[in-house]
Amino acid sequence: MTAVDLRSDTVTQPTVAMREAMMAAPLGDDVFGDDPSVNALQAHIAAITGKEAALFMASGTQSNLCGMMAHCDRGDEYIVGQNAHTYRYEGGGAAVLGSIQPQPLAQDAAGLMRLEDIAAAIKPDDPHFARTRLLCLENTWNGQPMPQAYLQQATDLARQHGLATHLDGARVFNAAVARGGDAFQNLRDIVDLFDSVSICFSKGLGAPVGSALCGSRELIDRARRWRKMVGGGLRQSGLLAAAAHHALDHHVARLADDHALAQRLAQGLSNIKGLSVRSAQTNIVFVDVADGLGPDLLSHLERLGVRATGLIGLRFVTHLDVDAAGIDHAIACTQAFFSEGASQTASRSAGTAVY
Length: 355
Ligand SMILES: *Cc1c(COP(=O)(O)O)cnc(C)c1O
Fold this sequence. Notes:
Blueprint: E1 4-5, H1 16-24, H2 36-49, E2 53-57, H3 60-71, E3 76-81, H4 85-88, H5 93-98, E4 101-105, H6 115-121, E5 131-138, H7 148-160, E6 164-168, H8 172-178, H9 183-191, E7 196-200, E8 211-215, H10 217-229, H11 238-250, H12 255-270, E9 275-277, E10 284-289, H13 294-303, E11 306-307, E12 309-310, E13 313-317, H14 324-339, H15 342-348
Parallel strand pairs: 1-11, 3-4, 3-5, 5-6, 6-7
Antiparallel strand pairs: 2-8, 7-8, 9-10, 10-13, 12-13
Helix pairs in contact: 1-11, 2-11, 3-10, 8-9, 12-14, 13-15
Bound molecules: pyridoxal-5'-phosphate (PLP).
């Protein structure tokens, strides 16, 4: 049995209250546009993000893809970070399905592309080149909120060159909550800079399925056509929209709890010799493990009911199904791995009771 699953904030189970909201949701057929729960969610997230319209999507990947295809035509190009989700982790969908050429650029440790690099990558209007059409940014990036000044400068630069802007905001609520104060106002400050934003309900917000693409009515109308084409026209999806709606109403402020638990974990792990903890600004903690012991540590933790991901650098993600006791258990198990002597730990811990 897995007791402390820190692989991702996608592993959460819907709460009892969320399941009740799903059971109570009035349903229709969303392909006909008459599912009241989907329509209510779309109106709600459009209002929260201050955009004209929103579209409920099956996943963040589908939402980013349909967003990029709504912004770009065949033969257009988008500028994107070398390690950004919309370039590296979405199966090349924009290129495969949209005939949109990515122009990936190097990012620094905070995920930022240099403004000079962005400017230099924008192609002149010349038949030799793809038409540079869109800038894609991601916030949070590896659990780090992007500095507001950078978001402002990068989107200003894009606008000066006539580029559209899309934010992959899978975890943008984490960025908004991390800033402190009014999370919904913080969210507006971020997304106001972009023409479109994609937000995941199935990560820290704790819904089982779904994302939303938000933007102008015209953009969303184009995206709806692409969504149908990629198989995302769902029917009684109000069942899922109700879960997302519940998450927006009840699970935003509590992201601060996930951030506090990530801090607790980071602090606990930072005292352990052999580990170096990278900053935990929201709900993701990256840890570098010395001497190539990452995989051994990972399997040691797995045997004790603590799950994480990674190889050289391990990744721990907090979420609404983890509590302080679970975090302390994860710290204790990691401590034991190093204090028992990493090489012997594997055999010794094999029979240990699972937490
Ligand atoms: C998870 C994630 C996505 C994609 O979401 P899926 O629902 O898994 O398709 C996109 N961007 C970022 C930054 C993500 O973390």
